[in-house]
Design goal:
By secondary structure, this protein is an alpha+beta fold. Helix content is 45%, strand content 27%. It is globular.
């Protein structure tokens, strides 16, 4: 059962990645959340989904998905996946998000719940 659930997540990620067109790279951001704060974090993230889309969906940038770990690994870890046309676009989008009032209101609520953050950049090895 656990393997089947993980395979489902893999299929979701694969479908999301295949929707990004052209060159560029993917950024996977992972956050470990305090165990007693994970429900609040997930609720606030759901509540502010439109704010994330508004901040990160623009020409050359796309928010592709958000997942939480259900089985295996750190159960208090969340994953965000983005596609950017290039690093300059990434920097410009993240700079604009830092000035977005709605985005900053969301961050003010959830940042205290975060224990750690990891960010990895990936280029597509071959078209899917």
């Amino acid at each position: 059962m656990a393997r089947r659930a993980m395979m489902g997540v893999g299929r979701m990620c694969s479908r999301a990645m295949s929707t990004a067109k052209g060159p560029g790279f993917f950024e996977l951001r992972q956050y470990d959340i305090k165990p007693d704060q994970i429900k609040m974090y997930l609720a606030e993230t759901k509540k502010h989904a439109a704010d994330r889309a508004g901040a990160f969906n623009s020409p050359g940038s796309r928010f592709l998905g958000f997942w939480s770990t259900e089985i295996g690994g750190n159960l208090n870890r969340v994953h965000h996946l983005y596609h950017y046309a290039d690093y300059d676009t990434r920097d410009a989008v993240r700079d604009a998000a830092a000035k977005n009032e709605a985005w900053n209101a969301y961050l003010a609520k959830v940042k205290p719940a975060m224990l750690s953050q990891q960010s990895s950049a990936f280029i597509e090895a071959s078209p899917v």
